Amino acid sequence: MTESETDLDREEDLRRLLQDAIEVQLAALKAGISFWTEWIEQTSAFVQTATTSLANISSEDAKTRDVLLELVDAGRASVRSMTEIPRNTANKFIEELDKLSAQQETKIPKGRKRAAGSKKSAPVRPRRTGKVKS
Q1: pTM listed for this prediction
Q2: For 17-26, which contacts have Cβ atoms below 8 Å and span 24 or more sequence positions?
Q3: Are residues 106 and 40 in contact, defined by beta-carbon separation less than 8 angstroms?
Q4: What is the C-alpha to C-alpha distance for residues 131 and 17, in angstroms, rounded to an integer?
Q5: Which helix (H) or strand (E) holds 82?
Q6: Alpha-carbon gap, residue 41 to 60, rounded angstroms
Q7: What is the pLDDT of residue 109?
Q8: Mean pLDDT for the chain?
């Protein structure tokens, strides 16, 4: 193997490494966007319920006890949904990595041979199945 072939192999390995790093970073950013979107939606829903409940408490004809129970239930539901956000975010991250792995598998032809004496390319990330455990 010539020096120029070795240089080309190293260049290709470096290109693949940088591409993988960028893909993982993008998957993390997408999962982060998913986290904050879900957090905003859940927080907004609780704020709307709390605002309505407080307005009902202020009115003279509202049954204060029932309204307070509704507000407490909305608070519990909000906290429960907030605790699920990290798990949902982890699942989103894993799904993004799986999509990237699937795309890479379709790009790399089966049975591709490298030049004799050259190092093996980095292994393709294993496909993950299932969701993050609770």
Answers
A1: 0.56
A2: 17/122, 20/122, 23/97, 23/100, 24/97, 24/100, 26/96
A3: no
A4: 27
A5: helix 64-107
A6: 31
A7: 60
A8: 79
